Amino acid sequence: MNKRMKSAEYLSNFESMFKCPICNSSMKVFELKSLICLNNHTFDFTKQGYINLTTHMVKTKYSKDLFEARRKLIVEDSFFKPLSAAIAEMINKHATKKEALSLIDMGCGEGSHLSNISDIIRSEYNKITTGVGIDLSKEGILVAAKNYTNKIWAVADLANTPFQDKQFDIILNILSPSNYEEFNRLLKADGLVVKVVPQSGYLKELRAVIFGKPEKQSYSNVDTVERFNENFQLVDSSRLCYTVTLDNPSIQTLVQMTPLSWSSTAGQVTSFLKADSAEITVDLELLIGKK
Ligand SMILES: C[S@@+](CC[C@H](N)C(=O)[O-])C[C@H]1O[C@@H](n2cnc3c(N)ncnc32)[C@H](O)[C@@H]1O
Ligand SMILES: [Zn+2]
C-alpha cells in the first residue's frame, strides 16, 4: 500500500467526524483515494498523505523553507520541548478521567507540536490519542504529512472547518490565529481549549536586531487574552519563560523560521547571523479554557 492509500485507510476510521466543506453533508472514504460527500463533492488524498479540504486556492506567505526551518528547530534543537511538556501536563491535569482523547491542532503549521504533545500524553499519561492537524498553508501540511504518520493532516481554514459539531476533547491553538465561534462548535461539552500566545520576552534577542527601536520590540497580548476570557471560562493558565542556546547553524534556522524576518532587511541581521552562539528567550502564556 502506498502512503496515499495508508492515509486514506487510517482516515476511514474517523470519516464520521468530517462534513463537506461545500454542502455540509457527511463524507466517506472512496476506494482509498478520495473523501466524497453525499452530493459527490470529491477531495483526493495527495501522494504525501494529506487531504486538501479548502474550497478555494489560498496562497499564504509561509513557505516550505519556513516550515522546514521551524521543524528543524523544534525537533533538533528542542526549542519548544518545555512547551510540549507543559501542555501535555495541563491536558492530563484537566482531563484526568478520560482514557482516550481526540485532539485537533488549529493552525498546526508543520505538525511537530501536535506530534510531540500526543507522544507525551501517550507515553507519560497512558492515554490513547487521535490527532488532527489543520492549517491553511499547504506547505505546512505537506511537511507535517511527510514526517508524521498516524495523524490526519488537512489543508483547511480554521474559521470554517470541515468537521461535524462537538468532535474534539482538546483544541490546540499555538501561536496561530483563533476563531472562537468555530472552536466552540467543534469542542465537546466537556472539552478544553489550549491557546498559546507570545509574551513580552518572546524571541526578544531576535526582535532587538530586526526592529532596533525599542517600542517595536515587545509583544502586547492583553487584547488576545481578554478575548479568550470573553469566550471561554479560564480553568488554568501558566507563563512559561526559558532560554535556549543556539549554535550558529541554528541561529540561521531561527531567522528563517519566523515571520519576524519578513520585515527585516538583510543588513540588520547580518551580525546576528555571524554569531557563534546565542541565548534565545522563549516567553509564552498558556491559556486553558472550557465552555
Ligand atoms: C506562527 S505560525 C504557527 C504554526 C504552529 N502552530 C507552530 O507554532 O509552529 C501561524 C500558522 O497559522 C496558520 N494560519 C493562519 N491563518 C489560518 C487560518 N485561517 N486557518 C488555518 N491556519 C491558519 C498559518 O498558515 C501558520 O501556519
Ligand atoms: Zn458536498
Radius of gyration, whole Å? 19 Å
Mean pLDDT: 93
User: In which order are the strands of the major sheet placed?
Assistant: 4-7-6-5-8-9-11-10
Distance between the termini: 42 Å
DSSP summary, beta strand count: 11
- Please estimate the helix content: 25-40%
CATH topology of the largest domain: Rossmann fold
Derived structural class: alpha/beta
Percent in strands:
25-35%
Can I get a quick summary?
By secondary structure, this protein is α/β, with parallel strands linked by helices.
Report what the structure shows.
With 291 residues, the protein is an alpha/beta fold. The chain has two domains: 1-48, no CATH class; 50-199 and 220-236 and 284-290, Vaccinia Virus protein VP39 (Rossmann fold). Helix content is 36%, strand content 27%. Strand 6, helix 5 (138-147) and strand 7 (152-155) form a beta-alpha-beta unit. The longest helix has 14 residues, at 81-94. The radius of gyration is 19 Å and the shape is globular. S-adenosylmethionine (SAM) is lined by residues 60, 62, 70, 107-109, 113, 135-137, 140, 157-159, 174-177.
What are the salient characteristics of this protein?
291 residues; alpha/beta; Rossmann fold; 2 domains; eight-stranded mixed sheet; three-stranded antiparallel sheet; globular; binds S-adenosylmethionine; binds zinc ion
